[in-house]
Specification:
This protein is α/β, with parallel strands linked by helices. The protein is 35% helix and 20% strand. It is globular, with a radius of gyration of 19 Å. Pfam families: Thiolase_C, Thiolase_N.
């Protein structure tokens, strides 16, 4: 089987709700990263066989196959197709897996993977406005559980014994790390500036400098009166897009491209849909086994910070080094534009791997309904 490599990865800054990116249609925001991807790689978009695009709330602005309209908005040839994937928060991570599989199988040679979500314009939960997706049999199977991720996060905190102070300390650290990375210019090379309403959005907007356990203490629990989950230890509602260029080493050489990382393995797994957000734990074990890599060989872990208990439970169960977990901050500080987040995290991780000379990186994402993706990549050195 052929190898798959990522040769370029770009993202927009992540905009906060009703922030700098909120006035931009999802297709147009997608077009920004698609254009920058081929421009930075130095290739003609005509070489692209397909565009696989993640998006969660596929209604309104994001309906009717946003992946295809992203291609058209970018001004690419009409002959280039596009499709849209929904695996909840892991949508664009799944898009990367599908792109890698297409390339590895030999069916396609150059595939773009990525995603978008403009949550300011298409609010979280919009797709449920006209109906209930679960159906009576699912509800009966799980004792009419509401399938509310916030309640699931509360259950995880209770099961692993995480106090509010512990969750808030983790959240403050996310902001601290993200602020330090932003100040050091770590994100600059990966971010595509976006022109928006007379200004340019080029830095992540969600970072709250000086966040501490004390400053978070005044926030009220969001899902249970006596709960520990609140707006400050949960991911932010955000806007953003990201794109990755996937091909084979041979095709990369033909096109004059320099691969960044090799795709070593990708998996998806299901887990308890009531706890819902614990899937990254078995997914991590599964992807390491598939790749034949020990946990100790991985130099950076990106575990999406949907809620603070998620990476903390993952950390407790895997025994990974806390210093290697989300070293540049995560979604609590940097935001979580749902369908784009998988590609955003991968972009952030592989740039970090290249900057720091880290050989192996592992990304994993919890998802609504109790599924999770995990992907392992290996740095390619000259």
């Amino acid at each position: 089987m052929r190898e798959a490599v990522i040769v370029e990865a770009v993202r927009t800054a992540v905009g906060r709700r009703n922030g700098g990116l909120s006035g931009i249609h999802a297709a147009d925001l997608s077009a920004v990263v698609l254009g920058a991807l081929v421009e930075r790689a130095g290739v003609d978009p005509e070489v692209v066989d397909d565009v696989i695009w993640g998006c969660v709330s596929q209604v309104g602005d994001q309906s009717s196959n946003i992946g295809r309209y992203a291609v058209l908005a970018a001004g690419w040839p009409e002959s280039i197709p596009g499709t849209t994937v929904n695996r909840a928060c892991g949508s664009s991570q799944q898009a990367l897996d599908f792109a890698a599989h297409a390339v590895m199988s030999g069916e396609q040679d150059v595939v773009v993977a990525g995603g978008v979500e403009v949550m300011s314009r298409v609010p979280l939960g919009s797709a449920r406005a006209t109906g209930m997706p679960y159906g009576p049999q699912v509800l009966a199977r799980y004792q009419d559980f509401a399938f509310n991720q916030g309640l699931s996060a509360e259950k995880i905190a209770q099961k692993w014994g995480f106090s509010r102070a512990r969750l808030d300390a983790f959240s403050a650290l996310s902001h601290e790390r993200a602020a330090a990375a932003q100040d050091a210019g770590v994100f600059d090379a990966q971010i595509v500036p976006v022109a928006a309403e007379g200004t340019t959005v080029a830095v992540d907007e969600g970072i709250r400098r000086g966040t501490s356990v004390g400053s978070l203490s005044s926030l009220k629990p969001a899902f249970a009166d006596d709960g520990v989950i609140h707006a400050g230890n949960a991911s932010q509602i955000s806007d953003g897009a990201a794109a990755l260029l996937v091909t084979t080493p041979e095709r990369a050489r033909e096109l004059g491209l320099t691969p960044i990382v090799r795709y070593r393995a990708g998996v998806v797994t299901g887990s308890d849909p009531v706890l819902m957000l614990t899937g990254p734990i078995p997914a991590t074990e599964k992807v390491l086994g598939k790749a034949g890599i020990a946990l100790s060989e991985v130099g950076v872990f990106e575990v999406n910070e949907a809620f603070a208990p998620v990476p903390l439970a993952w950390l407790a169960e895997t025994g990974a080094d806390p210093a290697l977990l989300n070293p540049l901050g995560g979604a609590i500080a940097l935001g979580h534009p749902l369908g784009a987040s998988g590609a955003v995290l991968m972009t952030r991780m592989i740039h970090h791997m290249r900057d720091q000379g880290i050989r192996h990186g592992l990304q994993t994402m919890c998802e609504g309904g109790g599924t999770a993706n995990a992907t392992l990549v290996e740095l390619i050195t000259p």
